[in-house]
Design brief:
Number of strands: 15
Structural class: alpha/beta
Shape: elongated
Strand content: 5-15%
Number of domains: 2
Low-confidence stretches: 239-245
Distance between the termini: 60 Å
Strand order of the largest sheet: 3-6-9-12-14-15
Mean pLDDT: 84
CATH superfamily of the largest domain: Hexapeptide repeat proteins
Order of helices and strands: HHHHEEEEEEEEEEEEEEEH
Number of helices: 5
CATH architecture of the largest domain: 3 Solenoid
Radius of gyration: 28 Å
Helix content: 25-40%
CATH topology of the largest domain: UDP N-Acetylglucosamine Acyltransferase, domain 1
């Protein structure tokens, strides 16, 4: 499962796509000027694109300094080594953390409090890969060298520690994978309904309760259906010829 991330795309073209994404995906956005001036998520990704260019060209100290500056200005921490695709949108953004070896595909949306974190002290790939058109809800944590498949939605506050197939919804702690009833297509509008969380535990408990009630009903029916027989002492004859046990 590969993202369409391409490091060779011009920085300014990417910045334009980031601006377009903010205008399309935030109903509160009233004008291009307002978004450019007042959206910390946009500022964070713009600064990251510059820092990432410096990182790739060997100016790593200044790249790290730039990422810390961006963190102080926006409350969003993106390591300059992280690879982020086109049309990336961070809504609100405070508390977002994206690690060094994270890879994010095109048209991805994340909300505040999201962490794309590592779980290993080993060098090399230790952060998640997020495929195209994924939405990650507020407070979600995606940890380790795992892959989140394209067109998936990660529910608010989910903790995801294993790879997720394409077109899935993930909820809970640890994240439970649910396949979409109606797949999300590349041509569809962005799926921003990160508050639509299937209650899989509630449904499971309800099914168990219904099953217990069925079993209890069956036991009661079985007991009520027993024939109460009587043996006559004089000839040892039964009142009933057939009876259930």
């Amino acid at each position: 499962m590969e993202t369409s991330f391409d490091q060779k795309r011009p920085i300014f073209a990417e910045m334009g796509n980031d601006l377009r994404s903010a205008l399309v995906r935030d109903p509160a956005a009233r004008s291009t000027f307002e978004v450019m001036m007042l959206y910390p998520g946009l500022h964070a990704i713009w600064l990251h694109r510059i820092n990432h260019w410096l990182w790739n060209h060997g100016v790593k100290l200044f790249a790290r300094w730039g990422s810390q500056l961006a963190r102080g200005l926006t409350g969003i921490e993106i390591h300059p080594g992280a690879q982020i695709g086109s049309g990336f949108f961070i809504d609100h953004g405070m508390g977002v953390v994206i690690g060094e070896t994270a890879i994010v595909g095109d048209e991805v949306t994340i909300y505040h409090g999201v962490t794309l974190g590592g779980t290993s002290l080993e060098k090399g790939k230790r952060h998640p890969t997020i495929d195209d058109r994924v939405t990650i809800g507020a407070g979600a944590k995606i940890l380790g060298n795992i892959i989140i498949g394209a067109d998936s939605r990660i529910g608010a506050n989910a903790v995801v520690v294993k790879s997720v197939p394409n077109n899935s919804v993930v909820v809970g702690v640890p994240g439970q994978i649910i396949r979409r009833t109606h797949p999300h297509l590349a041509t569809d509008a962005p799926d921003l309904n990160h508050s639509m969380l299937p209650d899989i535990f509630g449904v499971s408990i309800k099914d168990l309760i219904e099953r217990v009630e069925q079993l209890e009903s069956g036991i009661k029916t079985h007991e009520d259906g027993k024939h109460h027989v009587h043996v006559h002492a004089d000839d040892l004859s039964w009142d009933e010829i057939e009876f259930s046990i």
